[in-house]
Amino acid sequence: MTQAPLLSVEDLRTYCYTRAGVVKAVDGVRFALERGDSLGLVGESGSGKSMTCNSILRLLPKPAARTVGGRVLWDGRDLLTLSEREMRRVRGREIGMILQDPLISLNPVFTIANQVGEPFRLRGAAKGRSDLREKVLDVLRQVHIPSPEARLSQYPFEFSGGMRQRTVAAIALAGSPGLLIADEPTTSLDVTIQDQFLRLLRELQEKTGMALILVTHDLGIVAETCNKVAVMYAGKIVEFGDVRQVLTSPAHPYTEALLKALPVPGTRQKRLYQISGEPPNLLDPPAGCAFEPRCHRAMQACKKARPPIKRLSDGRQAACLALEAGEVR
Ligand SMILES: Nc1ncnc2c1ncn2[C@@H]1O[C@H](COP(=O)(O)OP(=O)(O)OP(=O)(O)O)[C@@H](O)[C@H]1O
């Protein structure tokens, strides 16, 4: 008997209801993760990466956005059918999260000890005050906060940006999650601190075996941090597969274009390749493949219907008619 995946997202649909009309921000997303997997979720701004994560966590902006279909299977349950109370238990304990700006996740009026201790208290994981203190110190050490004893009574404003994000990671870890969702966790950090933080995520993942979903614009970060990648375009995953496979020989023309737009390390390119054209207006998306107007492989048939995502012979998945017609690869 094959085991069910750790997380299985099936045909997820989340729409935003705006004055100008309905935006299909997440439009039939499906993927599965196993224990220990780290998935890089990439794509241009507005492609639906954050909305996908927020739909899984059920943290959508209300009343603007609503999940209207699909399933999010986690540990035998569909998260979309849980009560708000049950969902609060899942968030922070079973599924941890790290957002772009650590200040949003940290409470300015509570000490670091109090905030990092909260998940231990919630799940009754500490036997008394001194055990709780030891557990908080231990998790602060795991995220490499220097002199953690001296930091316990401090407040978030006394920490640097990198230390704040480490504290958010410590809070997530304190819940002992099976999955960590990190939505552009390094965007607010300096480049050198970014590297350290990503190294920390990898290290924690190796140690705990938790799975990771990492949202980023940066394919270089994905190459270094993840073993799987999902490329999103206009609310859909257009390519999904093993990182090495997808990044060394992309199947979808959009993935190919994203890779071409990457700066080459060690060179000083004056002008980076830019993907021509604009992402589609999601209020009025094209009837056919959403990438067709920008695609150098587009065929007449691409204008007619959005291609479904299909498994290719090498195991990865991609949504492209040119692939099916043998035009690509
Ligand atoms: N609160 C909101 N109200 C209306 N529409 C929204 C709202 N939040 C997001 N959207 C729309 O949903 C779509 C997907 O947004 P999302 O934030 O998921 O994109 P993203 O890929 O994470 O982009 P970025 O990389 O810029 O964070 C966008 O077209 C956006 O305009």
UniProtKB/TrEMBL annotation:
Membrane-related topology note: Peripheral membrane protein
Keyword Lipid biosynthesis attached: no
UniProt entry keywords in alphabetical sequence: ATP-binding, Cell inner membrane, Cell membrane, Membrane, Nucleotide-binding, Translocase, Transport
Stored InterPro entries: AAA+_ATPase (IPR003593), ABC_Ni/Peptide_Import (IPR050388), ABC_transporter-like_ATP-bd (IPR003439), Oligopep_ABC_C (IPR013563), P-loop_NTPase (IPR027417)
Domain ABC transporter: 7-259
PROSITE patterns assigned: ABC_TRANSPORTER_2 (PS50893)
Compartmental location: Cell inner membrane
Pfam families recorded: ABC_tran, oligo_HPY
Family matches, as SUPFAM superfamilies: P-loop containing nucleoside triphosphate hydrolases
GO MF, one annotated term: ATP binding
Family: Belongs to the ABC transporter superfamily.
PANTHER family according to UniProt: ATPASE AAA-TYPE CORE DOMAIN-CONTAINING PROTEIN, OLIGOPEPTIDE TRANSPORT ATP-BINDING PROTEIN APPD
Protein name: ABC transporter ATP-binding protein
Organism: Chelativorans salis
